[in-house]
C-alpha cells in the first residue's frame, strides 16, 4: 500500500512538445505529492508539488494534474526544451518527511 | 545561502567494513532525512532526524543508523557492509515543521562496496 507507480520508464519528446509523466498511488492517507527533477551527478531538486484538495497546479511550464478519486497524478511539461532532459520522480507522503518515490522517468528532449 | 553539503563525494569500501557519511543541512533547517538510491530499487527512505531525535524510520536493517548533532549536522553509519549496500546515499534537509514540506537534497555520496 506504500507503492507509487510511475510511467513511462523513458520518454522521448521533440523540442516544443508536451511531456507527460503519470503516477498512481495506493495509500489514501498520502497528503503531499511532489515532483522532483534529477540531473546526472546531482541530487533530486523539487520542481512542483500539490496537495489533494487541489486538482491542478501550474508553475511556469510545469503543471501537476491530480485526480483524487482515481488516485493518480501527472506532470505536464509544456514547450519542452533540451534543458529539460533529466530523470523525473514523482513522490507521495503523509507529512512530507518520509517520501515514497516512483521509479523515475528518463526524459529526453530532441532538439 | 549554501545548499546541502555531503561528504565524502565518493567512497570505496570492502565487504565487512563500516562507513560513516556526513551531511550539513541548509542553515536554519532542523530536519535531515537520508535516502538510498539504486538503479534497481530507486529512491528509498532510510530515516529522518529532527532536533537530534529520530522522527521517522524506513524499512532498512539495523546495520543502517544515524544521528544528528545540536547544530543539525547529521551522520549516517553503515556497519558490516554488504555488496548490496553499493548505492548513492542522499541527504535532504528541510525546516521540518508542520507544513514545511520542501526537501532540499545534496548531491549525495556514491558508495561502492567491493
Structural description of this entry:
- The complex is a heterodimer of chains A (111) and B (114).
- Chain A is an all-beta fold and 111 residues long.
- Chain A is built from no helices and eleven strands.
- Chain A has strands at 4-7, 10-14, 19-25, 33-38, 45-50, 56-59, 62-67, 72-77, 86-92, 100-101, 105-110.
- Chain B is built from no helices and eleven strands.
- Chain B has strands spanning 5-7, 10-13, 19-24, 31-38, 42-50, 53-57, 64-68, 74-78, 87-94, 104-105, 109-113.
- Chain B is mostly beta strands and 114 residues long.
- The chains are: A mainly beta (111), B mainly beta (114).
Architecture blueprint of SSEs:
The complex is a heterodimer of chains A (111) and B (114).
Chain A: E1 4-7, E2 10-14, E3 19-25, E4 33-38, E5 45-50, E6 56-59, E7 62-67, E8 72-77, E9 86-92, E10 100-101, E11 105-110
Parallel strand pairs in A: 2-11
Antiparallel strand pairs in A: 1-3, 3-8, 4-5, 4-9, 6-7, 7-8, 9-10, 9-11
Chain B: E1 5-7, E2 10-13, E3 19-24, E4 31-38, E5 42-50, E6 53-57, E7 64-68, E8 74-78, E9 87-94, E10 104-105, E11 109-113
Parallel strand pairs in B: 2-11
Antiparallel strand pairs in B: 1-3, 3-8, 4-5, 4-9, 5-6, 7-8, 9-10, 9-11
Which features does this protein show?
heterodimer, A: 111 residues, mainly beta, six-stranded mixed beta sheet, five-stranded antiparallel beta sheet, 11 strands, 53% strand, globular, B: 114 residues, seven-stranded mixed beta sheet, four-stranded antiparallel beta sheet
Describe this structure in a few short sentences.
Chain A is mainly β and 111 residues long.
Helix content bin of chain A: under 10%
| Beta fraction of chain A | over 45%
Main beta sheet of chain A: 6 strands, mixed
Number of strands of chain A: 11
Identify the biggest protein-protein contact and residues per side.
A-B, 23 and 27 residues
Tell me the number of helical segments of chain A per DSSP (H or I, 4 or more residues long).
0
* Computed CA radius of gyration of chain B, to the nearest angstrom: 13 Å
Shape of chain A: globular
Characterize the overall form of chain B: globular
Which spans of chain A of ≥5 residues are poorly predicted at pLDDT below 50? none
| Beta content of chain B | over 45%
Main beta-sheet strand count, sense and barrel state of chain B = 7 strands, mixed
Radius of gyration of chain A (Å): 13 Å
Q: Low-confidence parts of chain B lasting 5 or more residues at pLDDT below 50? A: none
Structural class of chain A: mainly beta
The helix content of chain B is under 10%
In DSSP terms (H or I, runs of 4 or more residues), the helix count of chain B works out at 0
For the record, give the distance between the C-alpha atoms at the N and C termini of chain A, rounded to a whole number. 40 Å
Amino acid at each position: 500500500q506504500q507503492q507509487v507507480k510511475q510511467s513511462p520508464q523513458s520518454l522521448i519528446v521533440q523540442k516544443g512538445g508536451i511531456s507527460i509523466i503519470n503516477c498512481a498511488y495506493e495509500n489514501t492517507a498520502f497528503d503531499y505529492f511532489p515532483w522532483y527533477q534529477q540531473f546526472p551527478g546531482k541530487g533530486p531538486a523539487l520542481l512542483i508539488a500539490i496537495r489533494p484538495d487541489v486538482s491542478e497546479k501550474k508553475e511556469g511550464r510545469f503543471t501537476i494534474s491530480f485526480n483524487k478519486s482515481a488516485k493518480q497524478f501527472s506532470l505536464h511539461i509544456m514547450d519542452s526544451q533540451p534543458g529539460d532532459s533529466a530523470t523525473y520522480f514523482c513522490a507521495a507522503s503523509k507529512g512530507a518527511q518520509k517520501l515514497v518515490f516512483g521509479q523515475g522517468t528518463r526524459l529526453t528532449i530532441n532538439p | 545561502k549554501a545548499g546541502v553539503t555531503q561528504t565524502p563525494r565518493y567512497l570505496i569500501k570492502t565487504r565487512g567494513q563500516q562507513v560513516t557519511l556526513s551531511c550539513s543541512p541548509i542553515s536554519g533547517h532542523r530536519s535531515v532525512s537520508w535516502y538510498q538510491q539504486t538503479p534497481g530499487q530507486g529512491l528509498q527512505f532510510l530515516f529522518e532526524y529532527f532536533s537530534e531525535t529520530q522522527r521517522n524510520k524506513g524499512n532498512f536493517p539495523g546495520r543502517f543508523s544515524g544521528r544528528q548533532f545540536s547544530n543539525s549536522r547529521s551522520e549516517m553509519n553503515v556497519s558490516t557492509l554488504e555488496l548490496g549496500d553499493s548505492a548513492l546515499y542522499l541527504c535532504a534537509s528541510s525546516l521540518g515543521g508542520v507544513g514545511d514540506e520542501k526537501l532540499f537534497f545534496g548531491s549525495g555520496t556514491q558508495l561502492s562496496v567491493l
